[in-house]
Write a structure and sequence with these properties.
With about 130 residues, the chain is of the alpha+beta class. It is built from 2 helices and 8 strands. A hairpin with a 7-residue loop joins strand 5 and strand 6. Helix 1 packs antiparallel against helix 2. The longest helix is centred in the middle third of the chain and has 14 residues.
């Protein structure tokens, strides 16, 4: 897939313990983005934050929070991002969904398995 120039960045903020049919919500969003053929998705864990409820979530040892903020970031063409948004209406019942304009300067991946390679990527144990 070629992606360069004007694009949209879709960012979805949810709590780490948010789920969809007994699975992590972030996993479902990434899975659906991949099924939709979007260019890529990343899940980023925050160390502290709060949202609409104003409840503070933190990774500080004393609080032992397992409910940290997550950001799922997806970048693709405006048409593909806008076509994906209705799926988020179904999935995200609490959180924040944002879309902003970006410019893609470079989008390149490894040629490990070629197109359609569905082998899992070793994340070094970081994909809990």
């Amino acid at each position: 897939m070629r992606l360069k120039g004007p694009a949209l960045r879709l960012t979805v903020y949810v709590e780490e313990d948010a789920s969809w049919h007994h699975k992590p919500l972030y996993h479902e969003i990434v899975h659906r983005a991949r099924q939709a053929g979007l260019a890529g998705a990343s899940v980023i864990r925050g160390i502290e934050g709060y949202g609409a409820s104003s409840e503070l979530h933190t990774s500080r040892i004393l609080s032992l929070s397992e409910d940290l903020p997550l950001a799922i970031v997806i970048v693709d063409t405006p048409e593909r991002i806008r076509a994906f948004l209705p799926q988020l209406d179904e999935l995200v019942t609490e959180g924040l969904v944002m879309v902003d304009e970006v410019e893609v300067i470079r989008y390149a991946g490894r040629a490990a398995g070629g197109a359609g390679d569905s082998r899992p990527v070793d994340t070094g144990g970081r994909d809990s």
